[in-house]
Amino acid sequence: MYDDLMKDVQEKMQPAIDVAEVNKKALETLFSLQSEYVTDFVDSSVAQLKALSEVKEPKEAVDLQVQFFKSLETKMTETAEKELAALTTAKEEISEIVEKSLSEISEIPYMTDFNKFLSEAAEATSAAVANAVPAKEAAPKAEAAPAPAKKAPAKKAPAKRKPAAKATTETDAAK
After folding, report:
1. Which of 67, 75, 73 minimizes the C-alpha distance to 36?
2. Which one, of 132, 121, 34, lies nearest residue 83 by Cα?
3. Taking the model in full, what pTM does it have?
4. For residue range 142-161, what is the model confidence (pLDDT) as tens digits?
5. 152 in a structural domain
6. Domain tally for the chain?
7. pLDDT confidence band for 48 (50 / 70 / 90)
8. Does 93 reside within a domain?
9. What is d(CA 81, CA 108) in angstroms, rounded to the nearest whole number?
10. Residue ranges making up the domain that contains 78
11. For 39, phi and psi rounded to 5 degrees?
12. Residue 148: inside a domain, yes or no?
């Protein structure tokens, strides 16, 4: 019994395992492409620095830099196209796995029974709601009486003044 249960679980989990494998393969491809590009970038940058250190004329240095950046652009574009192709392939493989899984689910006998049950339940609920609400109550009610006007806030009484302090004279201060 335990073996049957484990076999059933493994069969049900196979699509998830397949998706993980596709993702793993795609990530390995992307990592490889990026690693290759970075290595090439570093090598070509070092070669460019050596070439620039030997240049005597500014125009020649500018030409070398333009050529260097054009080659970098070409390499980056090629790498991006390869990465996009790898991602597209992974997407297609995952889509196939998902479609296959969904078609297998619809073939399970209890799923068709469950879908039939849901349809019948929705129809019964709609009919019950329609019968429970008479036509008069379904019409919108007349507007309610307007709310009473709010009273203006009461005015505050003026604050009491404190008595003025007694004036002190020099003689009072001396005491």
Report:
1. 75
2. 34
3. 0.54
4. 555 555 556 656 566 666 66
5. no
6. 1
7. very high
8. yes
9. 41
10. 2-132
11. -60, -45
12. no
